[in-house]
Amino acid sequence: MNKLFLVVFVVIFQWCRAQDFEAADFGVLADGQTLNTRSIQAAIDHVHEKGGGRLVFSAGNYVTGTIYLKSNVTLHLEEGASLLGSNNPFDYVKDPYVNWQSMIFAIKQQHIGITGKGTINGRGFQTAINAVQNVHRGIVEDELKLDRVREWNRPENIYFRECEDVTIQDITLRDPGSWNQTYDQCVNLLVERIKVDSKSYWNNDGIDIVDCRNVVIRDSYFDAADDAICFKSHDANAFCDNILVENCVARSSASALKFGTVSRGGFKNFVVRNLTVYDTYRSAITFAAVDGGFVENILVDGVRSINTGNVIFLRIGDRWSKGKKPYMKDITIKNVYAEVPLEKPDAGYNYEGPIEDLPRNISPASIVGLPQYKIENVRMENIEIVYPGGGNPLYAYRGITAADLDSIPEMADKYPEFSQFKELPAWGFYIRHAKNIDFKNVTFKAARKDYRPAIVTDDLTGGTWTDVRFEEPQSEEKKQYIFHNSQNVNVD
Amino acid sequence: MLIKPEAMKRIAYLSLFFLMGANVQANEYNASLFGCKSDGVTNNTSSIQYAIDFIANEGGGTLHFYVGRYLTGSFELKSNVTIELHEGAVLLASPNVYDYLDYSGSRALIYANGQSNIKIQGKGVIQGQVPLFTANMETLVSKGIMGRDSKQLLPDLIRMENSKQVSVDGIMLLNGLENVQSYVGCTQLTLSNQIIKSNVYESSTGIFLSSCSGVELRALYVDASGKALREVGKNEIRIQENCVTPNGKKL
Amino acid sequence: MPTKRYILSFIFFLLISPVFSTEYNASFFGIKSNGTTLNTTSIQKAVNFISEQGGGTLKFYVGRYLTGTIVLKPNVTIHLEEGAVLVGSTNIYDYNIDTPNCALIYGKGVDNIAIKGKGVIDGQGREVAYHLMDQIHNGILADPLDYDRPRNRRPKAIYLRECSNVRIEGITIRNAADWVQTYDQCEDMVVDGITVDSKEFWNNDGIDIVDCKNFKLLNSFIDSADDAICLKSHDASKRCENVEIRNCVARSSANGIKFGTVSAGGYKNIRIINNKVYDTFRSAFTIATPDGGMVEDILVDSLHAYNTGNPLYLRIGARWNNGRQGTINQVVIQNMYVEVAAEKPDAGYSYEGPIEDNPRNISPSGIVGLEGQPIRNVTLRNLEFVYPGGGNPNYAYRGTTQEELAAIPEMADAYPEFSQFKELPAWGFYIRHVEGIIFDNVKLRAKANEYRPALVLDDVNGYDVSGLTVEEGTNKRKKQIFVQNSKK
């Protein structure tokens, strides 16, 4: 397998010990009540015009609506300082360029940052509720899909677009009205030591990196109602490139580390190291190429996934591809330990993931391409996955006859999710439409006997499986892997 | 149109069957509909501006403020929109310098440019917070954030430019800065039944007129620390009646 | 289960000990102090249970207890220990909105009840009102929205009707969506040592005592957006009788101590003794009877008011009186000191009183009956009222000629308020349609010169102003008393 190429870069912003400016000097009030939008904006503009520096917020509560960050300005939130989002939806701008709402925007700016141990608290729950009321009153138009205002009509905490040299450091991000923080087509982005508590309302992602280049996310903690660490590709002509995610902890009522769902351009040259996932409803790691995008040259090294509904879900689909051909190849996932629970892993969290795709027994890890678009060259090494087992055929059943396996729908244009096929015929791993899938030192454990085999492949060509082990009570004689329409898989 | 027909239908349906809003005409809007709060501390700027734009888009109408204190920064009036301040309603000007937008070099709490058929009426009050505002501004100047020429940034309570069929009727205007109200290049301008009290700022002009025509001034009481009426350029004041200052003189 | 047995024997023990007032902890009924669990049904069960057991005390210890409407039952005391907060739900549907006078704590026809302790009742009134507003704008609830606020369904913090033997002691009541507390046709009731802090929404009266008999309000502090201490009479066949208000402090963006506005039946034998009023927008003390109510035997003694818009306003009107004539008879006001504010006295408070009835210079005190329906037998003794003076005739003018005085409208059916006539012709006292009034050691002082006289009497029969002294700025020789159509 090809070696991963990654330039470890360090973003060094040296604006010569830039000057500090106190927000309070601009009449910005920390009383938790005064709407400071225009004062903060005036302060940012001032710092920007003076050549840059840090705008420092000392401890206190600063209410604001939409502000725009400008080149060479860093918002520095000292410990105890909170930027609080206004609860009036009209206090937020829907930026015409990105067509989205946010508390902090930066568009086409360079050398910007948000730092310090303070907090950005969108207070998005109440704002989102108020936005719904405005629709009900007939003064704002929104289709109210799923009885909520569309996510672009609710404010995020941060939305940066086409910015360069961006530093997000040490801050805590809380309770946005929509996604939490989006970095869209940015170059040289450093996110480190941040804490995300984003579960106050629907679509509360932890972080969204869209079509960015040279990104480091490290030493950070993400707790999100929706996807925790999420890479997207909105632009068919752009892609996420040269990304490092390391030493992060993620919790989600959707997926922990995700590529997609919107995946028009692609994802390339990623290293994910030392990721801990817990109490997560869907997948610890999921890559989706469903809109014509590609996934290429990805290394995932070191994942501990505890009490999480699914470990790995790789998927090629054909949803909004518009004729563009997706591909997914050259992926290494190694040093993974995962425990999949019997019960709902995110029970008790705000905005729990929806109970859906029933009836099904516990879903296996999966690699699912399409007949015309195979997932290629995936190597899995040093992996142990502990399942609850206990799949009950009277509750949900998928057999392993050719007819049973062929009857599994392709679902090419559906929203990709590990549970989308409902019952799958394996309890450990399900592989379909793939080429060259290698396993080395991979252990599948089921705590109780399952009616299904551990692994089912369908339309798999090529692969070397060494040291693949199965532990399942009362199943010593059971054939744990089933090859259907598969060839050239060498099992040692 | 900001509302989809379906939404309108839904609203009409609800109105019909729940018999609500029976006292509200189609083009009459309560401030609370737009989330305006009468608590004196919520900054209502965005809600008021949204309301005005919405009403203008609907072809015009009246935005009603009932008794209460509505804190706000700058907003712009649009054609065919009337602001009705009922007795006891106070539009309270923000003391924050930055809450006033720069409208091509001038600032005001209520601003209009190139609009027609605009009215502010009722027995309510538009109130500046002069000592707070000037203290804030002095702080900014002393810290070097604002230049010493910042006087040009002083907002008027009302400023209308190049507009026609403008009427400000019955309002009490309290505590303006350089100019309580300014009208530049307006035609068919009527100011009537106003009480102006502006003595906190050292030299506050009650009414500033520049290049206006068709001006009618009726029943104004102007108690201002500066000039009651200041005219620049050629103005055509068609009528002035019952307009007095505290010492009983005409403007 | 041993615990169950323990609990049962515990209850049994309590039941057979009638010597002690039975106490129950809130947690016993599963009531949660976390501030987020809605406890309505648990608290209601507790109240019902205690009442069914013959009565006792439900104790809330430190914590936040979220709840909707609780209906009180006989012989039950709610005891809020220091640190305990009964928090009103912000969901309007958690209140008994189908009942007129919905409230967080509601009682009708129940006897021997009490709310005690150093704890707090927090109505979260502004949020409740906003939620109600949403529902009205969405068309779910119908409301005329006069003044752009909900007219109906705003919950009070406490509403008790036809209850007897009631004690409210020590508690703090905050932030109702409407009147804070209303006691309607209650008898033998004492409100003692409470604190009211309610300025979060419109119509936040501090306390409304409606048609009550044998009622004492003592030692309390009341700071409210609307009238602070308010006696009302809703029922033409009832009245407030034997009411004592003593040792209280009141602050209001309306009136300090008020009778009315609704005053159908009337008020008899009311003693208002040793109270203070400050930072109050309208009158320190006012009686309004525009709805046919009979007001008699009223004593106001030792009332001190500072930074207040108006000292005193007594008014008969004819608004909703249905042909019945309101009366005011036998009013003694003594030992009263008032400083009237030059600027808006409640500036900076939440929900400031509305700027209205302009243009007018500072209004005088008023005693204003109706033609043929005079206010009778008023004694003013040992009063000192200090006014700012400075009335400017170019701003607002009312002269003292016969025509000008006659031109003052009667405004019989208007809402009675000291400012209702806009400019009045006196700066100290304006007295019209009165029979029998004595000024005994009354001092009126204006700090700056005035264009108006201190006192105007119009249609007054039997007046004695020999005890009146006037000081006005630098005016030493000005004629301060104007009398028209009157005799001594």
Automatic annotation (TrEMBL), chain A:
Pfam families: Glyco_hydro_28. Keywords: Glycosidase, Hydrolase. One of its GO terms (biological process) is carbohydrate metabolic process. GO terms for molecular function: polygalacturonase activity. It comes from Parapedobacter indicus. Gene3D superfamilies: Single-stranded right-handed beta-helix, Pectin lyase-like. It comes from the Bacteria. This is Polygalacturonase. Belongs to the glycosyl hydrolase 28 family.
UniProtKB/TrEMBL annotation, chain B:
One of its GO terms (molecular function) is polygalacturonase activity. InterPro entries: GH28_Enzymes, Glyco_hydro_28, Pectin_lyas_fold, Pectin_lyase_fold/virulence. Residues 1-26 form the signal peptide. One of its GO terms (biological process) is carbohydrate metabolic process. Keywords: Glycosidase, Hydrolase, Signal. It comes from the Bacteria. Belongs to the glycosyl hydrolase 28 family. PANTHER family: PECTIN LYASE-RELATED (PTHR31339), PLASMIN AND FIBRONECTIN-BINDING PROTEIN A (PTHR31339:SF9). This is Glycosyl hydrolases family 28. It comes from Parapedobacter indicus.
UniProtKB/TrEMBL annotation, chain C:
The keyword tRNA-binding does not apply. The keyword Hydrolase applies. One of its GO terms (biological process) is carbohydrate metabolic process. One of its GO terms (molecular function) is polygalacturonase activity. Keywords: Glycosidase, Hydrolase. Signal peptide: none annotated. Transmembrane segments: none annotated. It holds the Pfam family Glyco_hydro_28. InterPro entries: GH28_Enzymes, Glyco_hydro_28, PbH1, Pectin_lyas_fold, Pectin_lyase_fold/virulence. Belongs to the glycosyl hydrolase 28 family. This is Polygalacturonase. It comes from Parapedobacter indicus.
